[in-house]
Specification:
The complex is a heterotrimer of chains A (551), B (97) and C (219). Chain B is an all-alpha fold and 97 residues long. Chain B is built from 3 helices and no strands. In chain B, helix 1 runs antiparallel to helix 2. The relative contact order of chain C is 0.17. The chains are: A mainly alpha (551), B mainly alpha (97), C mainly alpha (219). Chains in contact: A-B, A-C, B-C. At the A-C interface, helix 7, helix 8 and helix 9 of A face helix 1 and helix 5 of C.
């Protein structure tokens, strides 16, 4: 039986659970695990490797961009740098990040289950992911690809001299990992909720993971067939995008963006889910408009499939199609706006605790709003004609992906780290890293809005000298941002052994995952919990003595 | 306990499918202009529904399975209709004024 | 009609599930979601077909007439009958009829092989008739490029479908072996039902491919 979710068992506070999911140490127990918590950690280690490689590529680009003329790399190498940066960051870091790490770890616990619906498929999804990554790295080692992460035809199919097929194959394989994960999460959410846990009692993180899974499952197969089509066309020497046969290269763009636009929602929705968890816990308040936020996740998932043509306004797509996609793109911003308003309303009259996860959450709200607004500018057909393929677009999506999603990932990692490891990270270092990240991020990417508006095209490493000051600022910011990311890497590893013991619920949070020990036992709960009320039953009045910013 | 379907349901389903095959095959030899496509698609859709209902046991299953069964098709229709909309409307606005 | 299972031999339930009902429901939902992904996987090719049929309708009609409708139609019937056998196989599994199950699974696989053999014969014939893109393709009429486009789509769609049929045959053979070893007795029949869903889906794809490729216009 489980009591009211806000009651904390004082007796177990501060205890490190001896017999937990980490107890067995053998390599075999890790590589053959079917425990969703271990699989989450396997994914964490793997995506970290790809994040580091993609960051090195970004660093090389930013160093090259310090000067208007090429100094460090040739144009062809520069093309390969931004391609590998995009491919690895999108498919091997951002898309898996929150779902496969935090989702895998936390989702079954949040719904009171012992594991996901298909634990062996879950392990298989990790191996598939690693195989896809290996193929992508193979391509990289043999010289990489210079088409951009977007693989546009006819360059990718006919004219590129780089290892397109192996890179496409790597992404194709990794896509199946995504599909399996999405399917697993959907079935888990439908079929394995604890007694009493109705859909509208679910934490919003679960809603966002479900919406993400819906997109994963419906969009990724289209990417798969598209990559297969360009690979076959490249290999066979003839295909459906080939103008010699009457084919249309823009058809590739339709197919590619039908996946890739919803893909950006795969990337941001889980982040939004994390923010809902953080905002409620660290303002000690119930979420404002729970049903609106949950349904907004579903609305984003569905509407996100209707807007892909806004990437193709200047591609020779018909003006009428452009107008329809433009209006629909304005529409998809509405549910995101609803979420931002609801988070803000949740903060109002809450008891705000500026702990590290909350710093990341507040940063997310501001930066995501800027990124989202600039998305609306881009959705306006006439504006897009001016700024398409400029640094304005790059700044826009980095505000959402880095200022938004990566900050949400960091916030979530800090929030659930005590549950995952049983120990607290050092709070002062955490706050410092969050501030450094925020400053570094804005310094890196705000100048890029200006650059883009002034006309600097994306994917160019040669530019007029009057743009240099913005590039220098941006590179300086990138160095600071790098420090902001390096710090958690160091102190999380340090805290694994040396952090203060956290106990089951250091944040005094609601939610089933906090009702079990830290680290959790192998099967999560001693007895299946029963849920009797809604989530986020926080009360600012009850927690008068609480100071989460210095636990 | 799982329900087991009577064998003649399966047999009659198969007979219906083979008859629909005969219909679509023979109508192909008649010139109906644009309706050839419409009839062919209608017959295919009918066959697909019959297979799903009776062979795949959608009939009598839960609502979520019904949703899963149609979701892929609906999403494919979104892909096709909006893309086709682009190609159909490309010639509508004259490029030179 | 209901089944009674003797308490001494219960179906196997995974640790993560509460009971066999939950396990079966989860597996079915999982497979249907996977089939939705397959719809969209083939869907990319259906999109290509739709766009180019819209653009080059006349050439598609001409090109379609050169395909062997007898083989195509026969193959459709072969798959429809194989689905019948598969449905009976699922029924046999639920009724614990081991020998019927093995026979029906093997029969489904056999009809799958018949399909693939006819396909092989057909592909060879297409090659001899110079209809394979980039491999001796020759087109006598107008717009040879567009005709080659039609045949590219034809080979891509039927080729992808054939890969799925091959995987299906392999699955059926493995299941037949496991069935012979008694693995699906005592209520453990769900794997057969799940595999059946896959097989029927592959059948449904062909049900669309046949008229769309072989019967584009009237013949």
């Amino acid at each position: 039986m489980i009591r009211d979710a806000t009651e904390i068992d004082i007796k177990t506070r501060g205890e490190f659970a001896r017999d937990n999911y980490l107890s067995e140490h053998t390599v075999r127990s890790w590589l053959l695990t079917t425990d969703h918590k271990r699989i989450g950690l396997l994914y964490l280690g793997t995506i970290l490797i790809f994040f580091l490689i993609a960051s090195v590529a970004a660093a090389l680009m930013r160093i090259e961009l310090l000067t208007p003329q090429p100094k460090l790399v040739t144009s062809e190498t520069y093309n390969k740098l931004f391609t590998i940066h995009g491919v690895l960051m999108v498919w091997f870091f951002l898309i898996p990040s929150i779902p496969t790490v935090l989702g895998n770890f936390v989702l079954p616990m949040m719904i009171g289950a012992r594991d996901v619906a298909f634990p062996r498929l879950n392990l298989m999804s990790w191996y598939i992911f690693v195989a896809g990554g290996a193929l992508a790295l193979w391509s990289l080692i043999h010289g990489g690809v210079d088409t951009g992460w977007t693989f546009y035809t006819p360059y990718s199919t006919t004219y590129a001299n780089s290892h397109v097929i192996s890179m496409a194959a790597g992404v194709f394989v990794a896509g199946f990992s995504t599909i399996v994960t999405g399917m697993n999460f959907m079935v888990t959410t439908h079929k394995m909720r604890a007694p009493g846990l109705t859909w509208f009692r679910l934490p919003l993180f679960v809603w966002s993971l479900y919406a993400t899974s819906l997109i994963m499952v419906l969009a990724t197969p289209v990417l798969a067939i598209t990559l297969a089509l360009i690979s076959v066309e490249r290999f066979w020497g003839v295909g459906i995008f080939d103008p010699k046969l009457g084919g249309d290269p823009v058809l590739f763009q339709h197919l590619f963006w039908f996946y890739s636009h919803p893909a950006v929602y795969i990337m941001i929705l889980p982040g939004m889910g994390v923010i809902s968890e953080l905002i409620t816990c660290f303002s000690r308040k119930r979420i404002f408009g729970y049903a609106w936020v949950g349904c907004a996740s579903m609305a984003i998932a569905i509407l996100g499939f209707l807007v892909w043509g806004h990437h193709m306004f200047v591609s020779s797509q018909s003006v009428y199609a452009g107008m329809i996609f433009s209006i629909l793109s304005f529409l998809v911003a509405v549910p995101s706006g609803i979420k931002v308003f609801n988070w803000t309303a949740t903060l109002r009259k809450g008891a705000i605790h500026f702990a590290t996860p909350m710093l990341y959450a507040l940063g997310f709200i501001g930066l995501f709003t800027i990124g989202g607004l600039t998305g609306l500018f881009l959705a306006a057909l006439a504006v897009d004609v001016h700024v398409h393929d400029t640094y304005f677009v790059i700044a826009h999506f980095h505000y959402i992906m880095v200022g938004g999603m990566v900050m949400a990932f960091m916030g979530g990692l800090h929030y659930w780290w005590p549950k995952i490891s049983g120990r607290l990270y050092p709070e002062f270092a955490g706050k410092l890293a969050a501030m450094i990240t925020f400053i570094g991020f804005n310094l890196t990417f705000f100048p890029q809005f200006i650059l883009g508006y002034l006309g600097q095209p994306r994917r160019y490493h040669v530019y007029p000298p009057e743009f240099q000051i913005f590039h220098v600022l941006s590179t300086a910011g990138a160095s600071i941002l790098g420090i902001g990311y390096l710090m958690p890497l160091i102190y999380f590893i340090w805290a694994w052994r040396h952090g203060r013991v956290a106990g089951p619920n250091p944040w005094r949070a609601t939610g089933l995952e906090w009702q079990t020990t830290s680290p959790p036992p192998k099967h999560n709960f001693k007895e299946t919990p029963i849920v009797t009320g809604p989530p986020y039953m926080y009360s600012a009045e009850k927690d008068v003595d609480l100071n989460l910013a210095s636990i | 306990m799982e329900e087991v379907v009577q064998p003649n349901v399966y047999v009659r389903t198969c007979i219906a499918l083979l008859m629909l095959l005969a219909v679509t095959w023979s109508i192909a030899y008649i010139n109906l202009g644009p309706f050839n496509l419409i009839v062919a698609l209608a017959v295919s859709i009918a066959k697909a529904i019959v297979i799903a209902l009776f062979f795949m046991h959608i009939k009598g299953s839960s609502r979520i399975l019904h949703l899963a069964a149609v979701a892929g098709v609906i999403w494919l229709l979104i892909l096709i209709s909006l893309t086709l909309g682009d190609y159909i409307s490309r010639g509508w606005v004259p490029l030179n004024h | 009609m209901s089944i009674s299972i003797s308490p001494a031999s219960e179906p196997f339930v995974g640790e993560q599930f509460d009971d066999i009902e939950q396990q079966r429901d989860a597996a079915k939902l999982g497979m249907w979601i996977f089939l939705a992904t397959e719809v969209l996987f083939f869907g990319g090719l259906f999109l290509g077909y739709t766009i180019y049929r819209f653009t080059y309708g006349h050439v598609f009609v001409e090109a379609s007439r050169k395909l062997d409708v007898l083989i195509g139609g026969t193959n459709t019937a072969v798959l429809l009958i194989s689905s019948l056998l598969m449905a009976f196989a699922v029924r046999a599994a639920k009724l614990d009829q081991r020998r019927a199950l093995v026979g029906l699974l093997a029969g489904t696989a056999l009809l799958g092989c018949v399909f693939m053999s006819l396909k092989a014969v057909e592909y060879h014939k297409d090659y001899v008739d110079h209809l394979v893109p980039r491999m001796g393709f020759k087109w006598e009429g107008a717009d040879p490029g567009n005709a080659e486009l039609f045949y590219w789509i034809y080979f891509a769609m039927t080729g992808l479908h054939a890969i799925h049929v091959t995987v299906g045959i392999a699955i059926m053979l493995v299941l037949a072996l496991l069935a012979w070893l008694g693995k699906f007795a005592h209520g453990n029949h769900n794997a057969v039902e799940i595999a059946g869903l896959y097989w029927h889906f592959v059948d449904i794809v062909w049900v669309f491919l046949f008229p769309l490729l072989y019967l584009v216009g009237h013949r």
